[in-house]
Amino acid sequence: MKSYLRFESGRLELGGRPIWGGLEMSAEPREMVAIMGPSGSGKTTLLNCLGALTRPTSGALTIGGISVHPASAAVRRKFRRDHVGYLFQNFALVESESVERNIVDPLRIMPRKRRPSTSDISRALGELGLPGREKDKVCRLSGGEQQRVALAAVLVKRPSLILADEPTGSLDSANGHVIIESIRRLTDQGACAVIATHDRDVADCCDRVVDLGQFAVSART
Question: In whole angstroms, what is the distance from residue 206 CA to residue 11 CA?
């Protein structure tokens, strides 16, 4: 049986400089996979490759039976729209807008029948400890609250693939625990999650760990 996510012979070069090569990784539904490695090892770029935001230099990437690389720009856009929920390290929120607008606006590209309802948003915020905060401006929220808003946007989209870039990096332990437990609930419902982290405690919460240090290559490779 083929894996839900399969990246074979992956190689990445940035500006002609090799970052990783010979990468072999897989992930399954209901699984959390941690991506670890030293600074500069390409953890974030690997997430971007998995999310069809960046093209690897070479390799074959298949997710959910879809060839993500190689693939046309149209296929990659549709894959991102239909399957990916991305939790960015910097939250990717518009601070001058409300919590509700930050959740709704990015999902307007979804087919109408798949867009979240007001009750969906309220439910997600309540699950994350932010009940009744829909109209609050993001700029008035703490860092932990902003990360939970970003996660609420992932919750209401219900993606099959969750990509999280250092989701606890700027949070205290309590807020970090909320984020990881929320991602685990999504995987328990059938999603697959890949988390880039330098935090061993986060990695210990995952089912498997991919160490990018094992795939580092020199300029002579």
Answer: 24
Chain centroid offset of residue 95 CA: 21
CA-to-CA distance for 190 and 95, rounded, in angstroms?
A: 32
User: How buried is residue 53: exposed, middle or buried, by Cβ count under 10 Å (0-12/13-18/19+)?
Assistant: middle
Is cis: bond before 70, omega within 30 of 0? Answer: yes
Alpha helices in the chain (DSSP H): 43-50, 73-83, 99-104, 118-127, 143-157, 173-188, 200-204
Task: Give CA–CA dist 206/221, Å, rounded.
Answer: 31
Tens-digit pLDDT profile for residues 63-79: 999 999 999 999 999 99
What are the φ/ψ torsions at residue 8 (nearest 5 degrees)? -120, 135
Give the Cα separation of 86 and 74 in Å (integer): 19
Q: Please compute the mean of the pLDDT values over residues 60-64 and round it to a whole number.
A: 97
